[in-house]
Amino acid sequence: MRIARLSAAGLAAGAVLALTAVPLAASAHVTVTPNGTAAGSSTVLTFAFSHGCEGSPTTAVAIDIPESIESVSPTLNPNYTIEKVPDGDRTAQVVYTAITPVEDGYRDTIELSVRLPDDAAGETLEFPVLQTCEVGETNWNQVAEEGEEEPESPAPTVVVTEATGDEHGHGATTDEAAADAHGDHDDATATVSDAATGSTDTVARVLGIGGLVVGVVGIVLAITARRSRSDA
To answer: What's the pTM?
Structure first.
């Protein structure tokens, strides 16, 4: 009976692990995360991966740049050599080649600074990625049609939002956004500091007044005690 229970528990655990492995395998993509999406703004795109090609270490990552993006600045990475592949006057592809292959199961990131098109609000920009490994490769270039399920090897995408910011209709640049955030932080810090100072002053005043009251009461009690002794 005990053996039967252990067997049933083992089967149940195996089923749970099998079901859990499905979403984990499905999430093993190359992803992109922008720090801003406003049309006409500068943004840093962070491409991330944490897997190889069926277990084989990653040796290179080639990122295709949409034709509507004219300005691309790859971020230096000490583990990669970087090549900008031109197409006329624009950069059509950026290739990061690993100096030391990235083992399967280790997360790594690559960053590109780009300027989003001025008139791309509402559009989805695709950044196909070719991941090359010591053995094999994976081309992350599939795009799901509207209403369909996500493909097996989806291309990283960025949805551009409406422009915000200056009078030219451009979104705030990364530097401008950082400066605004720093200014807000300084203002918040000053407010907290002022509040703390005001609170400290209030406490000091209350303690001072309390001390005076206690002192006066002590004097009155002393005088009363002396008078009582004299009368006695």
So the answer is: 0.62
